Amino acid sequence: MELIGHEAIVREWYLDNAKPPRGTWSIGITNASGHKVDRYKDNPQPITRCLEVFVWLLRSKYLPEVLRAFGGRELTETELGAALSWHWNTGAILTTSWVKLWLAGSVKSARAFMKTHYLNNGALTPRREAEAALFFDGIWSVTGTIATVWPVKKPSYTPDWAHPQRVDIGADLTKALVA
User: Fold this and answer.
1) Is 72 left (phi over 0), alpha (psi -120 to 50) or beta?
2) What pLDDT digit, counting tens, does each position of 33-74 carry?
3) In what helix (H) or strand (E) does residue 172 lie, and over which residues does it extend?
4) Which residues contact 83 (CB under 8 A, 6 or more apart)?
């Protein structure tokens, strides 16, 4: 839920805020993931489907890369959750300095690096601080199973920031995890 809390859910294809904008769907998923998201343009999916693809990507791509980055070192649940959230957002877990610093025992430097890099001109500062608190202190910033679901404005195909929906996704997440 931590990662979902940082990303939110959009049930149909939309243009993200990257430069240039990319077609995106579900929980920040783009075609670069290997899952073709263009099929969801004007085609909203049930939350369960959004979560099934999210879980599939976590298990098949992101989790193995996180585990490889930490070289077999056992991670706590909170460390793993933070590393997955950070990697989902940056795609850089295999090359970032904060992991190398942490593995070398330089915890203070690792925390500082994690909190001060990959900030997207400051827009991601709260997320990086939350990920650092989760990894280094074991403090979750998201609790429960309520998630934000954003509709899509048309014809711009951007998230409709004025109309967020708070949805309990607990049952859908359970289904996706056992699929």
Assistant:
1) left
2) 999 999 999 999 999 999 999 999 999 999 999 999 999 899
3) helix 170-178
4) 66, 69, 70, 75, 93, 99, 135
Amino acid, single-letter form, for residue 155:
P
Query: Length of the chain, please?
Result: 179
Taking the whole predicted model, whether its pTM rises above 0.90 is answered as yes
pLDDT number for residue 166 = 96
- In the chain, the domains with their CATH numbers are 1-178 (1.10.530.40)
pLDDT at residue 118, as a whole number: 83
Q: 124 with 41: CB under 8 angstroms?
A: no
**102-126 pLDDT tens trace:** 999 999 999 999 999 888 888 899 9
What are 51's two structure tokens?
């979560």
Question: Which structure tokens are listed for 27?
Answer: 């929980």
β-bridge pairing 146-150 and 9-15? parallel
CA distance 129 to 125: 6
Tokens 């939110």 -> residue: 8
Amino acid present at 175: K
Q: What average pLDDT does the segment 135-148 reach?
A: 94
Please report how many Cα atoms fall inside a 13 Å half-sphere around the Cα of residue 87, on the Cβ side: 25
Distances in whole angstroms, Cα of residue 3 to Cα of each of 70, 88, 138, 158, 170: 19, 8, 15, 21, 14
Give me 77's structure tokens.
């649940």
